[in-house]
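Sequence in, structure out. First:
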Amino acid sequence: MKVLVINCGSSSLKYQLIDMETENSLAQGLVERIGIEGSVLTQKVEGKDKYIVKTPMNNHKEAIEIVLKALVDGEHGVIKSMDEITAVGHRVVHGGEKYASSVLITEEVKKSIEECYKLAPLHNPPNMIGIEACEELMPNTPMVAVFDTAFHQTMPKEAFLYALPYELYSENGIRKYGFHGTSHMYVSNKVAEVMGKDIKDLKIVTCHLGNGASLCAVKNGVSIDTTMGFTPLDGIVMGTRSGSIDPAIVLYLINELKYSTEDVNTLLNKKSGVLGISGVSSDFRDIEDAAAKGDERAILALDIYHYRIRTQIGAYAAAMGGVDAIVFTAGVGENGPETREACLEGLEFLGVKVDKEKNNVRGKVREISTEDSTVKAFVIPTNEELVIARDTKNLVK
């Protein structure tokens, strides 16, 4: 059985074709800067040269088409036709309260995903584009939706309820859902394996840092809290998203500055975060380059980003009554040594210290804390695709 996994992010798309008999990746790729100048696809196949396609990709549909062409490419691909793909697993960010586990995609499921557009405006629409593009090209291939919200269903009520009239939760489902669940689940289990310990004996803070970003408190193997909330807009500062703000700011924008609700939604989701602060870009590499040249707003954007992550790690250590490991993952977390060091700076009182030499690593499993650290820090590349593929295999079988 070969499963194709499609993982559409807000400005990126990751994919893998996985042989589920061995769980080996036959091909894996990343499309970066979708909708941004400099769009590029990079595909890796063992035993072959890296395949790079640089071409404008204005939206996720164009990106999906290029991915499928790369997989069947005569020289660089790994399959002769789409018929070799048994099933496709799609990452879907928000399933509301309706879906607490993965499901086979039907018209009803697609309608439910569309109903959640308002809750995840940056992600559910590209998720759906990925689904529909694959359905069009592989109409007889089963599709599975794997929801980011599932892992966080273990949160206790004191963590997921807002201090609003209770009826808004019981009648309208307004609560914290949390996202990046497949990533937080994978890296927390992986770090327990690397440490040689039972995850049920560990308290872990996982930091999924990409264009979208969230932290999760994983105690004894389950999520007890996470930074994203009712939507992926909540929590720490992100690429284009504001993260947590005083809710009265929304009223001020509408009543005093005469913003429409659509204007506010666009502002908070697409024009804020490090993009809004820096005025440079939502891509951290661009901001770091500007900061290195002395751009004060770029420096400020990074300082705010690091501060919010650092204080949240401390908060989750308090929530769990301690912490054994801090894990960095996703695009920025895996590839940003400076970011990791800055986020941990000032947390020495918890018992974690960064080893600069060990921390000079990108995209590899590695402990980055010093030998005498009582709290260990790690880089763990995420593999949401494998989690999605496993669910897809189980549902299709």
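Second:
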Amino acid sequence: MSTVFVAASKLPTPHGTFIMHGFQDEATGKEHVALTMGDVGSGEPVLGRIHSECLTGDALFSMRCDCGYQLEAAMKAIAEEGRGVILYLRQEGRGIGLLNKIRAYELQDDGADTVEANERLGFAPDMRKYDMCEVMLRHLGITKMRLMTNNPRKVDALKNIDIDIVERVPLQTGKNPHNERYIATKVGKLGHLYNNA
């Protein structure tokens, strides 16, 4: 496993102060972050989210997806509980990178859905990997999670690294006229679980 822990620091946010743990994948140079609040290594199930980087949604307030809304909702839910973890993984655009994501958006502007756009660019619909989570969660002492996700692939990925998913917590937020088709495509073509998509 090429992912290693580098350093940790406090991260004050509008939702409270998290501890930010930095990790690096030495094989790719990618930097990943875990945000924790409270005692996550007690052995009790931890409320958590695996969140892949989305510059447009997380930082630029894009309404084309629900990523930024989900990140904020997850931080808020953890703060309300006083305990939890978010693994923030640097795999933009379902793993195709930012510039290819913009190319995919251009195809979507011309009528393609999010899966069709990725495939036209020569990519699989979802290129993300979750192997780095094993080192990150082991470092934090987390073995059981209540996972905030609508994506069954994330549940399976964590089960495959021996994380006990005691509950899947739906994270359905941010639906708007700009992302209705995007959410429906995630449900219809990628198997996401979403009520009334």
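Remark: The first strand starts at residue 3 and ends at 13.
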